[in-house]
Specification:
Mean pLDDT: 89
Number of helices: 9
Strand content: 25-35%
Largest sheet: 6 strands, mixed
Shape: globular
Distance between the termini: 69 Å
Radius of gyration: 19 Å
Helix content: 25-40%
């Protein structure tokens, strides 16, 4: 029987020198669920994503993604990495599109080079992804010709090109205005409605409240509170959650104009 949990993290620990970055984090993400990892900067959010994608070795614990297991203290063998790349897509905060490649080439690179998909088939698949995200008309553009919102949607299409069941996004709302944030939220809802699991990092409590199913609050490398997004963010029980909400409220507050 297929497990309802697509992602399972147990006892994740990571040190850099004498500093503990992750201190025994455990969490789950179910199939078709959007989970927001939240917390102030330095809490370990992005590091968790890097561990899930095997971009970062960890010192203790286990990560399981749809039948693929990552163990502590070692980089996965090539066979596990290939399986991992078919299960996990990552959208970085700065997008990291290949600047010398067109949108179409960015999206078809992994299917043709890693998945050995015939180019015409890869292009048909890529065009469908770009159409679903509203950027098919930019398929021949270079990344420098895209707006920030367009670049983000192309990055999502690239991450989905191998059809992974798990999509990770690092601070997806960081550079978006309110209208674009809402558009992104609706896009992510469509992805989870199609059965895909999303894990995003954010300190944007309004976005998490509106679009996430669950939140996991991180503070100093620990998961200190978790639960349904609206419940946790409306009635926080941990001091770190309250501090995050106060920070978000002050960040949204209008700045007074400088004197003339």
């Amino acid at each position: 029987m297929e497990s309802a949990d697509l992602l399972t993290i147990d006892g994740l620990r990571l040190k850099r020198g004498a500093r503990e970055i992750l201190r025994g984090i455990s969490m789950r993400a179910r199939r078709g669920e959007l989970v927001a990892l939240m917390g102030l900067s330095g809490g370990g959010k992005t590091t968790v994503l890097r561990c899930i994608t095997a971009l970062e070795e960890f010192d203790a614990g286990t990560i399981r993604i749809d039948g693929v297991t990552l163990q502590a203290g070692m980089l996965p063998p090539r066979s596990v990495m290939r399986a991992l790349r078919r299960r996990v897509g990552m959208v970085f905060q700065l997008h990291y599109l290949f600047e010398h490649l067109t949108v179409m080439h960015n999206v078809t690179l992994a299917p043709t080079q890693v998945g050995r998909m015939p180019r015409l088939e890869a292009e048909r698949h890529a065009l469908g992804l770009l159409e679903s995200l509203g950027v098919a008309h930019r398929q021949n553009a270079l990344p420098r010709e895209l707006s920030g919102g367009e670049a983000q949607r192309v990055a999502i299409a690239r991450a989905m090109a191998m059809d992974p069941p798990l999509l990770l996004m690092d601070e997806p709302t960081a550079s978006l205005d309110p209208a674009r944030r809402s558009e992104l939220g609706e896009t992510l809802r469509r992805l989870t409605a199609g059965g895909r699991t999303l894990v995003i990092t954010t300190h944007d409590d309004d976005f998490a409240r509106d679009f996430a199913d669950r939140v996991v609050i991180l503070a100093e490398g620990e998961a200190v509170e978790e639960g349904r997004a609206r419940e946790v963010l409306s009635n926080p029980r941990h001091a770190a959650t309250r501090a995050l909400l106060l920070f978000s409220a002050s960040d949204r507050a209008p700045r007074s104009s400088p004197g003339r």
